[in-house]
Write a structure and sequence with these properties.
Elements: H1 2-9, H2 12-35, H3 39-65, H4 69-86
Length: 87
């Protein structure tokens, strides 16, 4: 209540000065908040990176456990050659 009474007794110049200051303060605050990435965004990026890293590891393990197509084709050629040779 005292603040309201104090505002009414202030000169128009003082009121305008406070209004302008408050406006600039809000702009500065918004600019500083937007320039700093939120912690949620950082955590989400880290989570994605971790998932991608694990995915690559799993994919590599799966591919290494499968015989490559080149080696299977080579084995088939050898078998075919062996069959032909036996005849």
């Amino acid at each position: 209540m005292k603040q309201k009474q104090a505002n009414e007794t202030q000169s128009p110049e003082a009121k305008e000065k406070r209004r302008v200051y408050a406006k600039e303060y809000r702009k500065r605050k918004q600019a500083s908040e937007s320039s700093q990435p939120s912690t949620l965004g950082i955590e989400a990026k880290q989570k994605k990176r971790l998932y991608a890293k694990e995915y690559r590891k799993r994919k590599q393990v799966i591919e290494s456990s499968k015989p490559s197509t080149l080696s299977t084709e080579a084995k088939q050629k050898k078998r075919l050659y062996a069959k032909e040779y036996r005849k």
